[in-house]
Amino acid sequence: MSAIDDILAANREFAKQFEPGPARSPRVAVVLCMDARIDPIRALGLPYGTANIIRTAGGRVVDALRSLAVSQAVLGSSELAIVHHTECGMAAVDDEQIRERLTERGMVAPDGMVFHTFRDLEQSLREDLEVYRACAMVRQDIPVRTFVYDVATGALTEVG
Amino acid sequence: MSAIDDILAANREFAKQFEPGPARSPRVAVVLCMDARIDPIRALGLPYGTANIIRTAGGRVVDALRSLAVSQAVLGSSELAIVHHTECGMAAVDDEQIRERLTERGMVAPDGMVFHTFRDLEQSLREDLEVYRACAMVRQDIPVRTFVYDVATGALTEVG
Fold first, then answer.
1. Structural domains of chain A ordered from first start
2. pTM over 0.90, yes/no
3. Is the ipTM above a cut-off of 0.95?
4. In this predicted structure, what is the pLDDT of residue B160?
């Protein structure tokens, strides 16, 4: 059975007992990685309706800016947490290796494509804070805090 | 207390009882909205390690392509589900209204910025499938299926 057929079967059971929570406005936006080991709602305690959760490869902010502008201007979130994590796939390869793996599978990245791999979590968080600070369509008057999530322990540590 | 301080307090409790799951490769990537009412791991039955979850405003694919290339070329996902949902904030405003709300808060969108609001879920899913099909750095030889998630019932319905 395909993974997507498994999803449909699981959702049929989920919908049987589903009850929507209370209507709320999200207080916070969280940018974090798409990593398959991270369950942000449980790990960060984000009850129904409270957080816009934006997930990208590496938790990089570069392709979260449209979503953050919408979260803040349309939905009203007024805090931001940027979370990178240990054992991230984006720290295990570099951009050149990603290009090679794409080529092996018959794909090709556009000229000038940057995949935003990284080596050091504190540096990647600093870079992403700079990307955020340089963006005119997101709020600069709200708390923006940066964190490392440890996938071995489940613990979140503030950085910077 | 700030929302982020709440997150840190919740995470301390989470980490006390955290146990990592088994090492696995993700089978599937899921693109869906950052909406605060959606818990994709529960709603779609995605056990630890099985799915790369990419979340953007509206579940739009345009800013998920870097992440999808990494998910497929580096992490090995080999199916894709694109999920849009009912009562989406991106269907309640248009791009012009987002620009106005940004201006009201002192922000400004870059010239040419497109926020990818939409009116019709089947059309937004068709558009996003076209965006995916036009991209040379993602796999065209895998199942790519599109869905609507109903936030009132929790039910996922395949479209197209």
1. 21-159 (3.40.1050.10)
2. yes
3. yes
4. 85
